[in-house]
Design a protein that fits this description.
The chain has nine helices and ten strands. It is α/β, with parallel strands linked by helices and 281 residues long. The N and C termini lie far apart (39 Å). The structure holds S-adenosylmethionine (SAM). S-adenosylmethionine (SAM) binds next to loops.
Amino acid sequence: MNYRHGFHAGNFADILKHVILMRMLAHLALKPAPFRVLDTHAGSGLYDLKSEEAERTGEWRNGIGRMGATFSAEAEMVLAPWRAALRAISPEGRFYPGSPLFIREGLREQDRAVFNEAHPKAEAALKKLLAPYRDPRLAVTALDGYTMWKAQIPPKERRGMVLVDPPFEVRDEFSQLATGIAMMGRKWPGGSLAIWYPVKDQAGLRFFEEKAVESGFADILSVELHVDRPLAEGPLVGTGLLIANPPFTLARDMEALLPELAARLALSDRARYRIDWLTKS
Ligand SMILES: C[S@@+](CC[C@H](N)C(=O)[O-])C[C@H]1O[C@@H](n2cnc3c(N)ncnc32)[C@H](O)[C@@H]1O
């Protein structure tokens, strides 16, 4: 486990992931019944954009660093929960939050979240970050992410979502994700699920998408953002989320946002986006 998210925090892939995460939470909050969020690979929770790690790659400059100027009114509506969370967490913009702090912003009094992080240092940092909040809605576990995913579903609320955001350090990550989505399709077919992936290994991705379709979820949406032409090797320029049981508005939201987001974050004229239903009821 060498992956450290501090090198990548606030990059274009984080923007897409967290904008979608906040849309999903806002949708869950439309009904008063409580929901639960499971974050299988949570990270340390907050990243200093002036840290040595962040400066070394400078990835955030082509992500959050380009998000300042406003988009069209339609796109800003989609960005609104993400922007509100950013303002609440780091008003001066020095820090970029990780998924746990974004999720905390999306919870109401009756909702719960469990953050799982297997790396001891990142887990300790996350616990230290959350301690001052004394927030009884939050719990931290330190299991393997796939073990936690299986152990925690379905939650007693029977409403909610799982965010699966693995580091893709191992070659068989798509196989593990395929096993995981099949498991969730059996144990909690009514839950929502967002799986993050890099667009690099196209064969692995196609295999994973085929397995996802076989998982039994009625609705699966794929959303991708490429800031340049994705290649198997080299720096990450393409990212996606596979979303099972997305909010019914999410595809429309992405149609409103992604043309502008792709233009804003483009590194070349090869920037693209993709919004595809893999299955649709
Ligand atoms: C991409 S980062 C997570 C970023 C976070 N979800 C966010 O959006 O801010 C992946 C995290 O998974 C952790 N990790 C690595 N292997 C893991 C495993 N087997 N189970 C759980 N977490 C793991 C890494 O330490 C890293 O913090």
